[in-house]
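[retry 2/3] Aminopeptidase N: previous attempt timed out, resubmitting with same input.
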Amino acid sequence: MRNDQPKVIFLKDYQAPDYLIDETHLTFELFEDQTLVHAQLILRRNPARGTDLPPLVLDGQQLELLSLKLDDRELTAGDYQLDDSHLTLQPAQASFVIDSTVRIHPEANTALEGLYKSGKMFCTQCEAEGFRKITYYLDRPDVMSKFTTTLSADKQRYPVLLSNGNPIASGEEEGGRHWATWQDPFMKPAYLFALVAGDLWCLEDSFTTMSQREVALRIYVEPENIGKLQHAMDSLKKSMKWDEEVYGREYDLDIFMIVAVNDFNMGAMENKGLNIFNSSCVLAHPETATDAAHQRVEAVVAHEYFHNWSGNRVTCRDWFQLSLKEGFTVFRDAEFSADMNSRTVKRIEDVAFLRTNQFAEDAGPMAHAVRPESFIEISNFYTLTVYEKGSEVVRMLRTLLGAKGFRQGSDLYFDRHDGQAVTCDDFINAMEDANGVDLTQFKRWYSQAGTPRLEVSESYDPAANTYRLAFRQSCPASPGQSEKLPFVIPVELALLDSQGRELPLQLMGEGAPVGIVRVLQVTESEQAFTFLNLADKPLPSLLRGFSAPVKLHFPYSRDQLMFLMQYDSDGFNRWEAGQQLAVQVLQELVGQTQRGDSLLLDPRLIDALRSVLGNEALDPAMVAEMLALPSEAYLTEISEVADVEAIHSAREFARLELATALKSQLLQRYQQARAASRAEPYAATAEQIARRGLQNIALSYLMLLGDAEVLAACEEQFANADNMTERLHAMAVLVNSSHEAEKSRVLAQFAEQFKDDPLVMDQWFSVQAGCSRPGGLERVQALMTHPAFSLKNPNKVRSLIGAFANQNAVNFHCADGAGYRFLADQVITLNALNPQIASRLLTPLTRWRKYAPARQAQMREQLQRIMAEPALSPDVYEVVSKSLA
Ligand code: TRP
Ligand code: ZN
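[retry 2/3] Aminopeptidase N: success.
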């Protein structure tokens, strides 16, 4: 903990390590009140850095050094220097061995970084810089070592002892203890180290790789969760097959293990051969996990598995290169999910998420490039920009190079860099070399922050039969970056005739049309393209599939958007047209609200959604996506100054008008879907998920009407559903309704039924935290004292406090500023317990510039109050100080 001048780390200062660690031999003696860690490190001077012998500076934090040896010589206090984060000593030869013993306290570790206890089990989280809280080490990803790990613990409490690689020996000790030794044959950086000790059961299976090797698969959990693993196991096997088929990548060890833990800062971690997962990303059972949770498990299992190549076999040189593994791996898992489920729906969900959240980050005080230039605390840079925008950058590469060229590039990248720690430039170079292209300008996506704005205007010349699209790109200033150079923006497009047919595309200078869907490359700040031989003025379908992470502006009329909603052959752009139409209509309602005019919903939105609802040929998942109005958070993001109440009431007004006008169709769709649901047992198939999605959104609209008939249907769904997707949604719409008696009854019944299942209780907290009815803050404060709540569990913090601050705008932004004060109080408490979680929880307060002056002042006041705290962690310090700068 520090408050004075935290150190800023710069990419430009990178230097290769002075020393290398060829072998790492660790022994952990795990006890209830302490853990002893013995480390034997086989070191040598890095030949790339010279032949002199500079001091060796090992990282280490919160370690109690008990003994230290250099080549069998016991060192005493004068032989080395210790400060709160380093151990420095002077080697006498180019090759040497260091033996250390330290004492650590996993049982008191609430930060959940390094070695800690989750419930009754020991586990680790070392990425990014947690290994230094385990032993003195060169804790940086470009130092790769061969690890051998021995664990010893009480046999009864900890019958299962796991680490990376293969088990090579085990035995009993006196005093009821036992031990096991694991060896990982692959060189790896310390951030991929893991150990687990606990009373765990496992689901076992196996996978035969493409070269006919048998791999044992094991998913470990606490005994009560053994029945919730089949979905994760199925997802793992699908991921392994997919990576062989799509990327030619085979798994390399003889065993692959996943362990589920309840207390975890993020989603999951790709430790070599021993992935550790937040239980929310592994456990799934129809009765306790929603469809969304099933899909998340599938995606996260795939993500961590894919890291075995994109992250572990080829790792990062330094943490500025984080997107090298994360952006690429998110892209890989998104494509996997698209192949397993509906491609269009997956793309819609990802784009909506990116535009709502990453665009907001890119416009805020923590904005940074996909490859940041500097940081204070690397944990703060596991961001939407590094992950989601990083994935968009990889997607653009595939769009530009084509699927085949992209695969050639990834093959070259993996072959060339297997076993190495590399940079984003190495990735791009492999893509360039495999395709014979120059991506110099494209690399600006890695170095320039901010969301580009792309304005498009059209002109049609009826005499010449030509149609011209003029593009103008710009990018707002970001912290530390005032001027931006033009990006390479791939714009996938088609031109539609009056029947919605795609027209042949012939650009000026071309002898003949080249296809009906094309990718234009906008590379200049202003650039125009002229299409030939168009007998009538076409309607452009622009940026198909969201081919670049930009804010596109084209002056579509509402009638044109309605046309595109119906006729665009690109499913994504049909949805997008509907969203743009809804945004126009909602912004008009926001204006009416602010002026105090009576509200009038453009009937075209009703007509458009009526025909969507009536379209039996359309995938029900698409119908559901198109019925969903842009979220309050997205409307906030695209506002110059966000008016929280006006956005909420305008959107609620539109929902009520739509429900009223479309009641009979909504009811028909609802009843049809619910009947199908009753007739067939739950399965997490794309078809059923689509049906339930439509059923649930129909129910949300219908419940706005306050009808007895609908209330009865909702209660029926809550009471009789055989799955959490229907049950939870029925509860959520009741909670957001004015049926007070029914609401209390279902909340109590649900809590009674699921009180022993922490992941279900998380959902119970979330539903209430997100309820926009008056009194939200008081409800959340009351729930903080509920026996199932704990500030020490990150899932609980996210599901109650996080859901309140991020998904309940009207209550969080209540006029007296009490919501802000509440959040700041929690951040201050968490700063001492778990700095990573504290810093993430802060995000909504960092967005103060979006609001009117009175709110800005209240939000800043809370940031200043946090800033004045005496012992701020670097995590919280960095976010608060940048937000106030
Ligand atoms: N590498 C992890 C992933 O797959 C991220 C992660 C897990 C992480 N736990 C963490 C990052 C703790 C920082 C701190 O995305
Ligand atoms: Zn990852």
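[retry 2/3] Aminopeptidase N: The domain at 314-447 is CATH 1.10.390.10 (Neutral Protease; domain 2).
[retry 2/3] clearing retry counter.
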